[in-house]
Amino acid sequence: MSIQKISLAKNQIHKILQLEEGHFSDLKSIEISPAKLTKAISAFANADGGELYVGVDEGPNGSNHSWRGFTNMEAANGHLQVFEELFPLGGDFLYEFMQCDDQPGLVLHVIIQKTKEIKYASDGKAYVRRGSQSLPVGPEGLERLRRNKGITSFESETVPVPTEIITNSLTVIDFMLSSVPTGEPEPWLRKQMMIVGDKPTVAGVLLYSDEPQAVLPKRCAIKIYRYKTTDPEGSRENLAFDPLTVEGSLYEQIKTAVSTTSELIEEVKVLGPEGLTPIKYPFETLHEIITNAVIHRDYGTADDVHVRIFDNRVEVESPGRLPAHITTRNILKERFSRNGAIVRLINKFPDPPNKDVGEGLATAFAAMKKLKLKDPVIEERDNSVLVNIRHERLGSPEEIIMQYLESHEEINNRTVRALTGIGSENKVKTIFLRLMDAGQIERVPGKRGSASAYRRIIDPA
């Protein structure tokens, strides 16, 4: 085992001692038993990864941490032997010792990545990190964790309905005629493991049934909402109409949801330098993100995919957490399919929605840059993944303000918020102050309070 010893500067030590125990970090004294520490390592590995510092004493009120490490590297052998047995040094687990000239001893720093496999502590139990706690996983939670890790997938489970719903549907007939013209549906579906025994699988129903929602209610439709607001949350009061429900096979759902979303977006107007203009999002971005939400979601979670159209953004929420080792930080580079059969077989449809398998989100991000819009934001929630496609320009707010003033005499707070997508009046006020301090703009005389406006300072030269 090769473990490095690194020296830290005083300011780096200070940052570590200021850390609070939470979802991504834990600090422990050297007296804690290795067995207890394995619970924390298991919990980080089974959640979103994290960092463990062994050799930091906690103050009386959970703060004022102090550095008190191992006297030497050999003094931590008992910990390392247990860790190495359960969590071998390598891609998922990194161990290093940290030291500083004016601090006593060596702190063992453990960096834990989110792992593909379930990791168990020395007591044989699996744990997950929730806030600052390492919680044991019960039988039901263990199955959910297996699905989250991609070890098992709900798509392969069978459904107690007649096979005819996928062997004699219009969907499968159209598919066979266009994609497998020499075959018959049932033998082909059995060969693809879409029928096991005398029952269709979840993947088979989703792909080849005309109405999978009748078989798998409340877990395989797409809901589309239009909120006439820029508020952080939509409400019934600002709903433009009752939510639309998109049903049918996954292939048809994706096509309908993308086209419907695009049509609704075209009706949204935003303020630009030339006045109100239709809002624009790259079609590729909407297509790839909605496709990704449908084919990679957890179908074991009883919820639909939700597409929410606001005045300044589109949100796409997909049931289930990110699978296996995928995180919001590595999602554009790493690949993992929770629903491998769905991903593979939907690619056989004419003009498949996932043409470039594994490249969907990267394509979505690139398309946003071409339109000079900011990258979508991916957020992992307790039981879902939310992608926020913002209508915010890549340019800084200062650049957008000065560009607007090239063709307009003045600008106010409301206009800046409409142009930039910034929701906070106070934030815009701060931007105005910075531009005034830089000698770029001045307040329009006679306009104060809510009527305040600003104009360019004309260089007399």
From TrEMBL:
It comes from the Bacteria. Residues 22-136 form the Schlafen AlbA-2 domain. One of its GO terms (molecular function) is ATP binding. Keywords: ATP-binding, Nucleotide-binding. The keyword Lipid metabolism does not apply. Signal peptide: none annotated. Gene3D superfamilies: 3.30.565.60, Schlafen, AAA domain (3.30.950.30), Winged helix-like DNA-binding domain superfamily/Winged helix DNA-binding domain (1.10.10.10). The keyword Nucleotide-binding applies. Pfam families: HATPase_c_4, SLFN_AlbA_2. PANTHER family: GLPR-RELATED TRANSCRIPTIONAL REPRESSOR, SCHLAFEN ALBA-2 DOMAIN-CONTAINING PROTEIN. This is ATP-binding protein. It comes from Streptomyces olivaceoviridis (Streptomyces corchorusii).
